[in-house]
Amino acid sequence: MTLNRRNLLAAAAATPIAAGLPLSGARAQAQNTIRIGVLNDQSGLYRDLSGPGSTQAVRQAIQDSGVTQRGINVEVVQADHQNRPDVGSTVARQWIDRDGVDVIVDVPTSSVALAVNTVVRERNKVFLNSGAATSDLTGAQCSPNTVHWTYDTWMLARGTGGAMVRAGGDTWFFLTADYAFGHALERDTAEFVRSAGGRVLGQVRTPFPGTTDFSSYLVQAQASRAKVIGLANAGGDTINSIKQAAEFGLTRRGVKLAGLLVFVTDVHSLGLQTAQGLVLTETFYWDLNDRTRALTQRLGNMPGGLRPTMVQAGCYSAVLHYLKAAADMGAQQAKASGIETVNRMKAMPTDDDAFGQGSIRPDGRKIHPAYLFEVKTPGESRGAWDYYKLLSTVPADEAFRPLAQGGCSLVRT
Amino acid sequence: MDEIFGIPAPLLFGQLLLGLINGAFYALLSLGLAVIFGMLNVINFTHGAQFMLGAFVAWAMLNFLGLGYWWALLLAPIVVGLFGVLLERTMISKLYKLDHLYGLLLTFGVGLIIEGLVRNEFGSSGLPYRIPPELSGAWDLGFMFMPVYRGWVVIVALVACIATWLVIERTRIGSYLRAATENPALVQAFGINVPRMMTLTYGAGVALAAFAGVLAAPIYSVNPQMGSNLIIIVFAVVVIGGMGSILGSVLTGFGLGIVEGLTKVFYPEASATVIFVVMAIVLLLRPAGLFGRA
Asked: Any idea where this protein resides (chain B) (predicted)?
């Protein structure tokens, strides 16, 4: 919140200058200013995959969009939601009601995202979610004000879960982070496993946040004699699970780990020695093609010397598209109605360096291809951050849950 | 297969053992806290950050100086302990005459600053640190697969706890320390440098935290928040054991590790809260803690 306050102070300092101008000029200035709020984890386990790097990506998107040359001012504020829904919805309310924020971007942690989703809808603003995973954002809880940009639990389940079952992993045990995200990921993956003829032998719900030792759960998973242990968790939890699974020799004795949500920063943290062979699904990898490499180059080093994650790339892509729509409609129009702006975004095809060409469906799902990667062995890696090899590409129209199956009220059946 | 309360016996034994291993960390960390509180009357909220620093110093030694695990086990506590000495001399020593609350706020703030600085430098997702080759591998105990490293942690933690207890209860310097806690003015009058003793005690307590940090580095993710995740539990351990009671905090550490381990089998969702439930019950029945003096 301090950064937010600092930005407000800066705005306050700028006021006397505007006060010298005729009143209509000042008002025109305010009406032409779009405020983007980046709300995510700035201090906990999801900081590296979103955090200040997402803000950096948003700033890059503003620069690349060229809207300032067209007379639209864009301001960015950021805040830490500490992975707590109460904190997240309070910040969202303050931003919209008091600080005139028009768009809220990123919001990892599904429980927080669902809370912010409601706040933004009530106030008719725009919610561009990149960081959260729950497919409920475009299913039961879909909103005309929300676009779910980067990935979701259904896509992860189809990508990684599907690949594991095809490779013979037909009995599963889940280690599930005990909150909205973990539950959604477990549910979506279990559906895939069952529909492919596999069986789910059990699951254990681990407290979130605050679990550091997973050995007890891993031993329970092993006792179930499942062939695959599905890790329905993320960030630091996944890192600890994988590290401790290796320590307890699970993988050496033929049990396969399915990291259902693994980010490139997690692989970096684990080191290739521990992470090698892990199969995972992402929609963006910095070294995927010329366009992603060019974007990574433009973004420069992320905080902590990291490379951009798909969540940060999603923030870039979402804001770029939003600003295109806003420039098209005029800033004043875009600020007036969140629903109108999202509808305009849905009507325009998307195209950017992060995800290539894509589109936004009526339920608010942004669609683009998904990629199944395998983590390289230390021998295969040719340099820093050379971590993934591409196993297969899931085309955009197959990567996400079919429109009719989500149960979204915005979809006319 | 034999079952106990509907859980297969081998699984239950495994969980008890794992609980004991986690208890070793709780014991080691609460030991340092108890030593500091017992002698200095300071509630050291920087303890989690110092635990984390131990792990990060181990990582830095490996990556910048090429010094492996065994050197880190020896040197990291010294380095972080010296940092503790500096902290005590420049800040904490100014607060001895004031209410506990001031020491608590100061150490809590310093802890947040350290954590923030490390996070800024290294990010939040952590750094890789591997189990030393001498301690990798595992024993098959029949009822479970026991990594050698976890066994090592339990043994080392026990040795450290017993050694600390012996130093304080059975040596001359320990008796000075205990006397200085009771009546610093009198001990000073006998020509013993009490402020220096306080400084060294704080340094030793901090070194114990860093030692636990090095032990944790190969099995937990080495990240800036690793200490704050653990420290709340450890404080509960110290309160349950009786503030300042060394034996109390060690026994409670191991005991609560086991309680938590069992909760992970019977009702995993509650495993993060069970320790606080125990704390509430103990405080209601014995406000001074299980081993504390009222």
From this structure: Cell membrane
SS3 A97: helix
DSSP state of A178: S
B221 in contact with chain A, both atoms CB, cutoff 8 A = yes
Q: Which residues between 230 and 259 in chain B have a beta carbon less than 8 angstroms from any beta carbon of chain A?
A: 230
- Interface check B70 vs A, CB under 8 A: no
Could you tell me the fold of the domain covering A2-151+289-368? Rossmann fold (3.40.50)
Burial of B195 (0-12, 13-18, 19+ CB in 10 A): middle
Q: What is the mean pLDDT of each run of 10 residues along chain B (294 residues)?
A: 68 84 91 87 92 96 93 96 95 87 92 92 83 86 82 93 91 88 86 90 95 92 86 90 85 92 87 91 90 72
Query: Phi-psi category of B242—alpha, beta or left, where left has phi over 0 and alpha has psi -120 to 50?
Result: left
The sheet with strand A388-394 has its strands ordered as: A279-282, A370-375, A388-394
Tokens of A33: 């200013």
CATH code that applies to domain A154-282+369-399: 3.40.50.2300
Query: Positive or negative, the Cα torsion across A286, A287, A293, A298?
Result: positive
Task: State the 10-residue block means of pLDDT for chain A, 413 residues long.
Answer: 44 41 53 93 89 96 93 95 94 96 96 96 97 94 96 93 88 93 93 91 88 88 90 89 87 84 92 88 96 95 90 97 95 94 96 96 96 94 94 93 92 73
CA B110 to chain centre: 18
Helix (H, G, I), strand (E, B) or coil at B17: helix
Closest residue of B to A42, CA-based?
A: B124
**B232: Cβ–Cβ under 8 A, 6 or more apart, which residues?**
none
> Helix or strand or coil: residue B172?
helix
Q: Domain residues of chain A, as ranges?
A: 2-151+289-368, 154-282+369-399
Q: Give the pLDDT of residue B281.
A: 94
Domain A154-282+369-399 in the same topology as domain A2-151+289-368: yes
**CATH assignment, B3-285:** 1.10.3470
Contact B121 A236 (CB under 8 A): no
Among chain A residues, the shortest Cα distance to B233 is held by A210
- The pLDDT, as a whole number, for residue A2 is 39
pLDDT reported for residue A9: 43
Would you tell me which residues 18-47 of chain B have a C-beta closer than 8 angstroms to some C-beta of chain A?
A: 18-19, 21-22
Q: Which residues contact B84 (CB under 8 A, 6 or more apart)?
A: B50, B202, B203, B205, B206, B207
Residues of A in contact with B125 (CB under 8 A): 45, 47-49, 235-236, 239, 265-266, 268-269
Buried (b) or exposed (e) across A238-259, using 16+ Cβ within 10 A?
Answer: bbbbbbbbbbbbbbeeebbbbb
Are A360 and A317 spatial neighbours (Cβ–Cβ below 8 Å)? Answer: no
Cβ <8 Å between A216 and B265: yes
Instruction: Give the 3-state secondary structure of residue A256.
Output: strand
Instruction: Select from A217, A211, A279 the least CA-distant residue to A45.
Output: A211
The reply to whether residue A268 touches residue B221, judged by beta carbons under 8 angstroms, is no
For residue A91, the number of C-alpha atoms closer than 13 Å in the C-beta half-sphere is 29
Give the E-state strand segments of A71-164 in sequence order.
Answer: 73-80, 103-106, 126-129, 146-148
Q: How far is A181 from chain B (nearest CA, A)?
A: 15
Q: Pick the residue from chain A with its C-alpha nearest to B224.
A: A44
